[in-house]
Structures are given as structure tokens and as C-alpha cells.
Amino acid sequence: MGYLPEFYHRIKDFVELDKTESAELVDLTAAVQRLLDDQFVTTSSLGALKRRERMLGIQADSSVETVAFRRNRIINRYSTKPPFTLRYLQEQLDRLVGPGRTVADIDVQNFLLTITTAIDDAEIFREVEHTVKVIIPANIVYQQNTALQDDIELVESIAVQDVTWNYKLDGSWQLGAAPFATLGPEVPVK
Q1: Does the residue 176 lie in any domain?
Q2: Total domain count for the chain?
Q3: Do residues 68 and 99 share a domain?
Q4: Distance of CA 61 to CAs 65, 73, 89, 176, Å?
Q5: What is the structure's pLDDT at 67?
Q6: 84 and 140 fall within a common domain
Q7: Percentage above 70 pLDDT, the chain
Q8: How many whole angstroms separate alpha carbon 103 and alpha carbon 189?
Q9: I need a labelling partner for 162 at 20 to 30 A (CA). Which of 44, 62, 70, 175 fits?
Q10: Cα(12)–Cα(185) distance, integer angstroms
Q11: What is the C-alpha to C-alpha distance for residues 119 and 157, in angstroms, rounded to an integer?
């Protein structure tokens, strides 16, 4: 009503018409903003992400993959266009996995590309594999090395436990009537 002259404010038809149009204009503004946001991968809605994944032939698993990972995968697929260099491949891998978690090395004499990664997520690993297969020329052999580091701590303990067998081989024992054995309490020795 703020845009209408004052004498329209007293007419009930115009007041109701303004309420209806204002609601429609708010919805229209939100739809235009959503359309603008959907034009860019980083701000697109879930529906737009699904549409882009269909266009790129990606079968996403929303129960495992985060929306952020799905956006990064789409950006990765859009940006894997020739020409390619080792530096470009390293930048793509750093963007996809994280800086310092992958090292790409090429042996020119043997036509061998070795990528050493520290990836513990299967979805990211598959995307790295897809990226490498799209980028490398047909005459280069791809070799994957894993560089995960974990610490393992061992704790030793010894215990003894009595076992009482509940069956006899004379035919008197009925299958399922009692367990095969009964375990006594576990007594630590060391």
C-alpha cells in the first residue's frame, strides 16, 4: 500500500488486492533469487545439483556424500577440459582432496604417472581416479600409491577360562537342547 495514493488505502478492494499482490511479489522475488543462485554451482539448490549430476552422468549417493563434496565433484568435472599439464593435474588433485594430500609424479622415459595419496574416503578416491583417467593421455600408464599413516598400539593380556562341554558322543545329547559348551569366568593371568 505504500506505493498507492492515500485515497486507495480506505477502499477495501484495493487493500485486499495489495495483500495478494504483495505475497505474489515476495514469492516472485524468492523464485528469481533461487534461479540466479542455481546458475552457479557453489550456490545452487539441491534440485539444481541433482540436475547437473544427471547432465554429467554422476550417480550421487546422498546418504554417504555431503552436499559440499557433490558441489566440488561437479566443479571438478566442469574444469577437466584440455590442455593438461602435470601442474594442472596437481592443482586439480589439491582442490579435490586438499593441499598436500596428493603428489603427482611422471616418469617421462617409461610413460608412467604415479600419484601418491593419503585418502581414507572411498568417494573422494573414486573421484580422484575419474579425474586422472579423464586427464591423462592414452599413452601414459597410471599407477596409484597409498600413503596413509596410522599408529597402532598393542596391549598384551593373558587370561584363563574353564570350558565345560555339555554334549556326549554316545547319542544321548539332543541337538539344540543345550549349548555345546559352558564358559566359566575369565581369570587374568598377566
Answers
A1: yes
A2: 3
A3: yes
A4: 6, 13, 26, 43
A5: 92
A6: yes
A7: 96
A8: 49
A9: 175
A10: 86
A11: 34
* Angstrom distances, CA of residue 162 to CA of 75, 167, 185, 187: 62, 16, 7, 9
* Dihedral of alpha carbons 70, 59, 124, 134, sign: negative
For 120, phi then psi, to 5°, come to: -115, 10
Rounded mean pLDDT, 143-167: 82
DSSP 65-94: S-HHHHHHHHHHHHT--S---HHHHHHHHH
Residue ranges making up the domain that contains 33: 6-37
Cell numbers representing residue 27 in the block: 514469492
Q: Is the pLDDT of residue 51 over 90?
A: yes
SS3 (DSSP) at 78: helix
Number of residues that make up the chain:
190
C-beta separation of 98 from 117 below 8 A:
no
Strand partners, 165: 181
Residue 49 falls inside a structural domain = no
Provide the strand spans (E) within 69-180: 102-107, 112-117, 141-146, 159-165
- Residues 124, 73: Cα–Cα separation, whole Å: 9
pTM over 0.85? The answer is no
Return the C-alpha cell found at 106: 611422471
The region of weakest confidence among 6-10, 70-74, 94-98 is 6-10
Separation of alpha carbons 48 and 41, rounded Å: 8
| Residue 22 cell numbers, joined | 504483495
Domain contains 165: yes
pLDDT at 43: 93
pLDDT of residue 165: 82
